Give the backbone structure.
Amino acid sequence: MKPAIQAGELRHRIALEAALPEAFDTVGGRDVTLKKRIDTWAAVELTGAQPHEDDGQRVTVITLDVTLRYRSDLTRDFKLIWRDQIYLIDSIAPVDTKCQWLRLSCHAEI
């Protein structure tokens, strides 16, 4: 039986970051910073690019499917960074019944 993904397909370096709890800065505002949590290899597939208007500005929504080795600590609160672009994670699903791989559906507005 062929595995869902071959290790050689994991050729893209990605980072997954989680937001730290909010803290107040020196002038009373809220300061949210990202803390890098995971650097890993993944298979990245561009699944779409849809232009639309948002408040009169033309933006493009890029969607990706990202496959990586299974991690139990990964949640939708993480952000994915690939090629200097930050993507929001829409869903996380196991690829196989053995829980060896995860597929993330992600999007970014550019």
Remarks:
- The two ends are 40 Å apart (CA to CA).
- Residues 10-23+30-109 form a domain with the Thrombin, subunit H fold (CATH 2.40.10.270).
- DSSP finds no helices and eight strands in the chain.
